[in-house]
Design a protein that fits this description.
Length: 140
């Protein structure tokens, strides 16, 4: 059986996720996948064609980098009317990230939940015995 991608965190008005990964790269990738699985569900392909974007970010620390990563994906998704499904993390350091994200038109998806932003409220990113764990609360 496949490992569960993420678990939801109970929160009064917003929604949170808990992600675990073998390394920091996997946590960033899984957090992006979880975000878009909350936002939309793929139906049939009505508008063929893929979209791809390069992302380069600089932040003060790794925790801020995670929030900036998710918010950049949300911004691009909204601005380009796309849903992302493939996340290639080329480089992650304590303060920088380089990635290529791919997806397709939002017209190919049924929208489920609108996420406005990833927040710093309740943000956690830490090393655990078997890798890394992140907790992120989304503003809906």
């Amino acid at each position: 059986m496949a490992e569960k991608l993420y678990s939801l965190i109970e929160h009064t008005a917003d929604m949170g996720i808990r992600i675990k990964g073998r390394d920091i790269r996997e946590v960033f990738r899984k957090s992006a996948q979880a975000t878009f699985s909350i936002i939309a569900h793929q139906e049939r392909v009505r508008q063929p064609g893929k979209v791809s974007f390069n992302i380069e970010l600089k932040s003060a620390n790794l925790e801020e980098l995670l929030v900036d990563w998710l918010n950049e994906l949300l911004f691009l998704s909204s601005a380009k009317e796309a849903i992302f499904s493939d996340f290639k993390l080329l480089k992650i350091t304590e303060r920088t990230l380089q990635a290529v994200v791919c997806g397709s038109s939002a017209a190919n998806y049924r929208m489920k939940t609108e996420i406005k932003a990833a927040t710093y409220h309740g943000l956690s990113l830490k090393k655990i015995p078997r890798g890394w764990q992140a907790e992120v609360i989304f503003d809906l």
